[in-house]
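Subject: sequence -> structure tokens, single chain

Hey, anyone have a minute? Need the predicted structure for the following. Not urgent.
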Amino acid sequence: MGFSHLDEQGQIKMVNVGEKQDSRRIAIAEGFIRLNAKTLRLLKEKALPKGDVLTTAKIAGIMAAKKTAELIPLCHPLKLTFVDVSFEVLEEEQRIRIESKVETTDKTGVEMEALVAVNVAMLTIYDMCKAVQKDIILEKSRLLYKEGGKSGIFKAD
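Reply:
Had a minute. Here:
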């Protein structure tokens, strides 16, 4: 199987999706950010110097999903119909799980939009917590699920 973003001469190209039919597309991605106990406590209490971290990270992730084609050179601009970013504080692990879900009815999938949303949300958490902790760890960003298009359903292990 060849690479869809290379032409016959090996030159980079954008995939032509003009002839493809619109179909419903869904992608879910996740990532984790590890904080120390003090930072996690301040985050939960909304007592960090920059304010409400998770609300800001949610907005940042949603905005980022909508700008994916501006950030990733060969991504197609899509008409997103739904974007959400959610958080689960895992106190015993001193981590936050970030999940994004992105939907569209379009000619190509939304995996990149879901991954960009998760990663920008993680970077926003980092930015808002770095005043009290510099050694924050961003971990395990990955696609969990996708459906739509000719490749069908994908579910991560």
